[in-house]
Structures are given as structure tokens and as C-alpha cells.
User: What shape does this take?
Amino acid sequence: MTTKKRAGDAVAVVDLSLRRGDGLGLVRRIRSHFPPLKLIALSVHEEKNAEFAAIEAGANGFVLKRSIATDLLPTIDAVLARSAT
Assistant: This one.
């Protein structure tokens, strides 16, 4: 998990493929303990239900690992922009 701060907003990037544990469960726990924190889920799974499950668990955004180099920063920007409105 990494965090990035911009203008007072914090973003956590959570890998859903944890070696020991449940990535979706971690998203749920973070969401319940830190409601204002913005969460972006990373996954190798390209199925639409993987993204849906992450959003349903409390993630604000979703990025496929294969496209992390091009999609992560724009997703962070989009999540922060949505919280600013």
C-alpha cells in the first residue's frame, strides 16, 4: 500500500492480490477505519466483476496492474477531482 497526498487529500493504493490475506477485506477495513481516505485498488484480474467487487468494497478507483504506468496517476487525479466537487 502506498499513499499520495495532494492539497490535504490522502490516497491509498491497495494491491488486491495480497500474499497473506484478502485485498478486498483490507479495502473494507481501511474504509471503515478511515472513511475520508481515497482508495484505489490494483488488480491483475481484468474481469469487470473484479472492478465491481473493489468498488463495492469501498474503493474509489480501480487500476489494472498491466496498465499501472499509464493509468495510476490519472486515476488518482480523477479520484481527487471527484472529492473536490
